[in-house]
Amino acid sequence: MIKLIVLDVDGCLTNGDIIYTSGGDEIKHFNVKDGLAISSWIKMGFHAAIITGRESKIVEKRANELGIKHLFQHVKDKESALKELASKLGLKSYEVAVIGDDLNDYKMLKFAGRSFTPKDGVKEVRELVDTVLSQNGGDGAVREMIDILVDENDAKDEFLSMWM
User: Fold this and answer.
1) Alpha helices by DSSP H, 70-140
2) Residue 140: which CATH number?
3) Which of 16, 98, 127, 149 could form an SS bridge with 112, CB 3.0 to 4.6 Å?
4) Is there a contact between 42 and 151 (Cβ–Cβ < 8 Å)?
5) In terms of Cα–Cα distance, which of 38, 52, 53 is closest to 5?
């Protein structure tokens, strides 16, 4: 059973675009369906984490909005960060699912018991993961991943009961 989902940001939670205003502010576009699924996953008693190579106040704000307690930014070695978190939570690799889209996610994806990439993940990652999703990053890929995990965890009734 998957107990922890680990999310990359750029290319998974977003479409990968990094937009700056003329004032230097960063803009990111998040999918509301991804957000509802993440917050529901957490409400069901599971863990969620963000492990990202960049650092952004916007990502911190989004994590707080969704109730994600495990936020790791500006991470160069994502696999080490994930192994440390799994150990802290008392989880084995087979209880961890990861979504990533590019080479800096490769080792983290390889460690996970269940791995996903958006449809537009890079070739090397698409060849590695268990599931290539039908949605692009930032366009509901995380929601699709969570829907699959809810089904695999036999938790569909609990997931739906929060909203129906």
Assistant:
1) 78-89, 106-111, 123-128
2) 3.40.50.1000
3) 98
4) no
5) 38
Name the pLDDT band for 163 (thresholds 50, 70, 90): confident
Query: How far apart are alpha carbons 14 and 137 in whole angstroms?
Result: 6
Q: How far apart are CA 110 and CA 141, in angstroms?
A: 19
| Contact (CB, 8 A) for 12 and 136 | no
Using a 10 angstrom Cβ sphere, with 0-12 exposed, 13-18 middle and 19 or more buried, the burial of residue 72 is middle
CA angle 60, 27, 124 (to 5 degrees): 80
Report the candidate in 79, 71, 74 with the shortest Cα–Cα distance to residue 54.
74
Strand bridging mode 96-99 / 70-72: unpaired
CB-neighbour burial class of residue 33 (10 A; exposed 0-12, middle 13-18, buried 19+): middle
Q: How many domains does the chain have?
A: 1
- Tens digit of pLDDT for each residue in 76-91? 999 999 999 999 999 9
- How many Cα neighbours within 13 Å face the side chain of 116? 28
The tokens describing 67, both together, are 């109730």
The proportion of the chain whose per-residue pLDDT surpasses 90, expressed as a percent, equals: 95
